[in-house]
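Why does residue order matter? Because the sequence determines the fold. Keep that principle in mind as you read this record.
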Amino acid sequence: MPPPTTLTSYWSKMGLCARLFLPLAFLIAGIVGVRYWLLSDAASSQERLRYTMESQHVAQALSRALPPLAAERNDTAIASLLQHAADVNPNIAEVRWQGGESPLRIQRDSAEQEFPAWFARVARLEPLSYSIPMVLPDGTTGTLQLWFSNTLPLNRVWTGLRQQAAITALNIFLIYALLGLLVFAARRVLGRVAAAARAFRGGDYHVRLSLRGSPEIRKLARTFNDMAERVQALVGTLQAEKERIAVTLESIGDAVITTDLTGRIETMNAAAMQLTGCGADEARGMELHTVFTLANNFGQHTLLKSMSAIYAGGPVVKAKNQSLRHRSGERYNVEYTAAPIRRSNGNVEGAVLVFRDVSETRHLMQQMSWQSHHDVLTGLPNRAALQARFDHEIGRAREEDLLLAVCLFDLDLFREVNESGGQMLGDEVLKQVASRLHDFAGTRHYVARLGGDEFVMLLREQANRAEIEHTLERLMLSLKRSYQCQTQTINLTASAGVAVYTGTTASPDNLLRHADQALYQAKVQGRSRVHFFDADLDEEVRTHHNRRTEIREALQSEQLCLYFQPKVNLRQGRIVGMEALLRWNHPERGLVPPLEFLPIIEHTDLIADIGEWVLRRALTQVAQWRAAGREWVVSVNIAARHFQRPDFVQRLRGILDEFPEVPPQLLELEILESSALHDVSHVRNIMQECQAFGIRFALDDFGTGYSSMSYLKRLPADMLKIDQSFVRNMLDDSDDLHLVSAVIGLARAFNRGVIAEGVETVEHGALLIRMGCDLAQGYGIARPMPADTVLDWAGGFTAVPAWENASLLGPLTSLHNVHRRDDAQMMLFTPV
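Structure:
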């Protein structure tokens, strides 16, 4: 292998084509290799999923169809069924049934292999086989065995890759052809530029390139010509520039004084005259220190010494923080630079003193120093100042054996003030809050603003927790008073988290973090509260924080998915809608139900982000089902924090606008009855705004909250959903049965629709029909399922005969005897 220097020499001698094409070839080879590796992996994964799902579908279909035929000993029908399955699915290689006197076997030849043998190892798409034991209705057992060939899936993957390879080869050929043309044109242009540059370097300043060729070549020639003209003009104007130097000195902002070797002034510009108070004519011939007079004797002595060194050929001297005395007695803060003036032979012929007024700069530095430790809006110390003070207060509390309380305050619902009244109103409120905290702190305590609406107060010299609680009680009352901002009266409360330093080794960061965790707990408990940090809950809070972070990452990485549970009209035997149910497809834990992760984020803004994601996915699915001819209403559960956001209606309107092909009437929002009762008027207004553009509403889990006819009258819900706990037990518990009947009666009285959740058996559905509730959902109808299986399920859905019979019997006139499952079943089929 040649040494590196030899390789570098070879590389530098290579032409433009080789140096361009060789790296490009390696780059393309690498990219193509990675692309086809990823493409092969993606195609294999997709085909593997399809292959697996088709085989599982065949296995499930046969496992459902074989037992009735095997019970009848109908070997002919079984053989026909197995042969039909083999004909329908070309991947089936062999089917065996062992459940009678003689086993049945269906075998078919494998498809012709189009891929090379090595590709099967790369694709990792193995043949599948299933062995399904069954218990027949007569008590005997049977075994269904299936073998699936992987030849056809591998053929499809191989064919797709070959087609992509042909397209890639054509693209590479075209790229190299175009690059060759570009390099050829570039080499011609570079030759013309090199020839012109050699002539220009030889002194021919009139040489110019001809303006012909492509737009890029003409632009290059024009640029070269412009450069030549500028150089030619520069040579002619050097003398004129020399004359302008004097004018420039007069116009610059810095003061300039020049002296001869004896230290007498020769020239000074206007800025120097203004700062010294001496005119140029008057100063000419005077000694420098009589005009440039420093107020400090030490500074004046240093200047004289420095100038003597410069006249002797010494280096440049710089000085800062000097006080220059004006003739009028006024003083300026200046900084100056003194340097020698040399002839072309290097000999010193004088000196130049350049100085400037930095009084304003110094003032700005002082202001910046103040701002670096204070909040500009409120004037309170900021986080940096708090950090510096924190260590001091901890040391003092340790020495005096007293408690130090770290209190973190946050204004409740402050964002609504900003959104409704604007930033100016919010800033005014923050300044008034800061003023109250500052007045309360006085000289004993210390208060700082962290940012936004967060403030910190260090309560010093606290004897015990009771004293801390009493102090905070007075402070919270002060913050709770109304804020007068111009013509508006703003009512706000604050929440506080408290961490107490008791002489342990806790750091300021840990104390502040503990106070922040306590503040979070105060918010969760309902706001306008003071919560002390509890070490026992520290681990739980951190765990919740980690879980919230994990859930946010799951949303961003598309790990969340929707399942759909059908809603049916029992009396008519038809599907009327679907409920969208959230699931987390966790990479390690598998499919996680919502109750395991939604409660962790229900009090954070992340619940609104997930809610909007669910709305978009649900509307996407509605559009797909409409394209397939299914006009189903899809209901989506909306969390209370999401629903009660001030911009909920506007953002919902924006989401609907993203799906113009979906009528708003096909979207139903489900809100919990308990969450709707916190602010009935606000919830009512939101519901009416949404209903104005077609959205439907359902009160979920109706009957589990604080139901009353007054609330039901005020909330304009279109549908009541009977909680599944009542429906599930109504065949065994007379109280639940009467509750279900009461909800149905309320819905009928208030002209509301009603749907029952938790229908798990045929008897549940039949009894609901006779009680007057025709709409239902539950495991007895269908479990929640992925979106891609809904249409297949709907295609096979049929009405249940027992429900048709219950429809013919008419409504129940009494529930007096329906208090046991056997009585309920008898009532289903016996007119009252």
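Residues 563 and 581 are 5 Å apart (CA to CA).
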